[in-house]
Amino acid sequence: MCRDERRLDMVKITTTSPKGTYGLGQKLAALMKGGAVICLEGDLGAGKTLFVQGLAAGLHVQDEVTSPTFSIMNFYEGDVQIVHFDLYRLESVDELEEIGFYEYSEREGGVVVIEWPSKFPDELPENYLLLSIEHGGEENERVINVCSKGGKYDDLLEELKVICEF
Ligand code: ADP
Ligand code: MG
Known about the structure:
By secondary structure, the chain is an alpha/beta fold. 27% of the residues lie in helices and 30% in strands.
């Protein structure tokens, strides 16, 4: 795992193996003991689930972490509770309300991961970390851009810059 770019508002991390992306999740977990919201973007096979598995491991979740593609939301108990949403199959704001999306995403103290945030751009919380995973040039390469939306996680982003430094 290495950081390529130094910019105030974005951290760009390149991983060269599944382990690297998992490890990024684990490292981020160390910064999230007080809770946080992460919006997670990336095509199928980008490494979203792997990243969340690393995050969950870093928060000492014992249960198996799987994709919420069909369940829409998964819960995990670790150092803090993780709620993992996949908005892909939802069609309306009513459905978001039904599943408690707003309560969970505004709640303090837990970690909330939202896949397919682009389906409901106007319904996202005011503050979140946006993490986009893209395929890199090589087969096992992924480029992961992390930015802070809304300001609340600016400091966390700065800390991430420091721990991804080597
Ligand atoms: P998604 O949830 O985004 O659909 P998954 O995490 O389920 O993706 O799968 C990612 C796949 O890509 C896994 O098979 C993993 O082994 C592979 N892979 C190869 N290189 C990487 C990398 N650098 N980071 C993450 N996954 C990688
Ligand atoms: Mg997945």
